[in-house]
Design brief:
With 441 residues, the protein is of the alpha/beta class. Helices cover 39% and strands 18% of the residues. The chain has 17 helices and 15 strands. Strands 1, 2, 3, 4, 5, 13, 14 and 15 form an 8-stranded mixed beta sheet that branches. Strands 9-10-11-12 form a 4-stranded parallel beta sheet, with helices on one face. Strands 6-7-8 form a 3-stranded parallel beta sheet. The longest helix is centred in the last third of the chain and has 17 residues. The termini are far apart.
């Protein structure tokens, strides 16, 4: 049975498609003579025109087939490639107490690197109003889908409280539930049962008492950070068991559970020899000094020094790489995410470290791009249509100076970003980044 939400999204898409309503403040914009990436097939169509009206793509075709509307803003895209905007499936939005400027800066850092959709994974007071402003185009921001305040060992102390917390967050209109460590198995099962009954998804960590198999059995929508997998494949202190790797992948695929690897972050957390390289990252200039200092101090805490200098960090890292490749090869839904802003994970810029580490695991540029575009769009298909460059889809796109199928590095420093039909060229992006840098100098 088709849900009311799906019917509504189709209805709205038709209104946009036929021009019955659109965002009146935005003129039509044309990308002219561009190569359009087809993420699903790993190919591209050359010498194309893409017409945007409001926040929707309204026409796509060859230059000879598509006329340029009168008065349109024309973007000369000759020699460039147009990609769908990227999704960050495990991102964080600063709490409202951080102040409007800090929030605006964080949201712009995402946009500046082509991240046009963020699944925020730790809700707090005031963020639902921020979501409204972002998703209505009142502020420059990715489209936001937000998890509520987390279910953890401190916020939940009984199965009954877990049930009540689910219903409370549904009533508050959060998009999903966030699972953190600390839940007992009965608390987790009560949360999952109630969530499944009322139709709200839950994702994030797998509490230690729960384990991978229990999480899969109740269809936790996403498992983030590869939580629960390393114990299952017996890979904490030795090379992972190949049979267990394959078993884990098949069980996850059959349960239709997605995985958000955040694999670059764990590379940072597991290896102390990264510190000098990390301190030299150029994007650190876009975060406050106290944040940078906090990240450096992570490596100085006694408990972390012991962890980082243990005998198995490299083994754990290699096991994560092998696990990700096995999950991908076996057809598990891989959803791109970085956990920004975490330790040395600057919003937006963190996607490049994540993609490089996914390449290290053996995933192809096409597979990586799919995880960040098509897969994210499919995940949110009941809320809106995006993640592909198609008529009627949300106008979230990134203009690139080269073909990322040949070299994923072309995603760095895009020629421009369009988010919900709002076009930001390279000059505009650089000017705002310079202003953010000046604020945090």
């Amino acid at each position: 049975m088709i849900s009311v939400r799906v019917i509504f999204s189709i209805f709205v898409g038709c209104l946009y498609y036929f021009g019955i309503f659109s965002t009146p403040a935005l003129a039509q914009i044309v990308f002219d003579d561009v190569s359009i990436l087809n993420i699903e097939h790993g190919s591209f169509d050359t010498h194309q025109r893409v017409v945007v009206k409001g926040d929707r793509i309204i026409a796509i075709g060859s230059r000879t087939a598509i006329a340029i509307p009168e008065g349109a803003n024309i973007i000369d895209a000759a020699g460039k490639y147009l990609s769908p905007g990227f999704g960050e499936m495990h991102g964080h939005i600063p709490p409202i107490t951080s102040g409007e400027q800090a929030i605006a800066d964080t949201l712009f850092l995402y946009i500046s690197n082509g991240v046009t959709t963020v699944r925020g994974m730790l809700g707090s007071e005031g963020q639902l109003e921020l979501r409204r402003k972002a998703n209505s185009g009142q502020i420059i921001a990715p489209t936001l889908y937000l998890a509520g305040p987390s279910f953890n060992g401190n916020s939940v102390t009984s199965p009954k409280q877990a049930q009540e917390k689910v219903l409370e967050q549904v009533n508050e209109t959060w998009d999903l539930l966030k699972v953190h460590p600390g839940l007992t198995l009965p608390e987790y099962q009560a949360m999952a049962k109630t969530a499944n009954e009322v139709g709200i998804e839950f994702g994030g960590h797998i509490p230690n008492e729960v384990g991978l198999l229990n999480a899969l059995s109740v269809s936790q929508r996403t498992i983030d950070h590869l939580d629960g997998f390393i114990p299952f494949v017996e890979g904490a202190h030795k090379p992972a068991d190949d049979t267990k790797l394959l078993e884990a992948a098949k069980l996850t695929r059959n349960a239709r559970v997605g995985v958000v690897p955040t694999i670059a972050l764990w590379k940072v957390l597991l290896r102390a020899d990264n510190l000098e390289r990390l301190m030299a990252l150029p994007e650190l200039k876009y975060v406050p000094k106290e944040t940078r200092e906090g990240w450096v101090n992570y490596y100085k805490r006694p408990q972390n020094i012991a962890f980082l200098r243990g005998s198995t960090p490299e083994i754990r890292h290699q096991n994560r790489l092998k696990l990700l490749k096995t999950l991908s090869d076996e057809g598990v839904e891989i959803l791109f995410g970085t956990d920004a802003p975490q330790v040395f994970s600057v919003p937006g810029f963190s996607i490049h470290n994540e993609m490089a580490t996914m390449r290290e695991a053996g995933m192809s540029p096409q597979e990586i791009l799919k995880s960040a575009t098509l897969a994210v769009g499919n995940y949110f298909k009941e809320k809106d249509r995006f993640g592909q460059i198609r008529v009627g889809y949300r106008a979230d796109m990134v203009l690139l100076n080269g073909n990322p199928f040949a070299d994923i590095a072309y995603l760095k420093k895009p020629a421009g970003v369009m988010q919900r039909g709002n076009w930001l060229d390279r000059q505009t992006i650089d000017a705002e980044l310079a202003a953010i840098e000046a604020r945090y100098k």
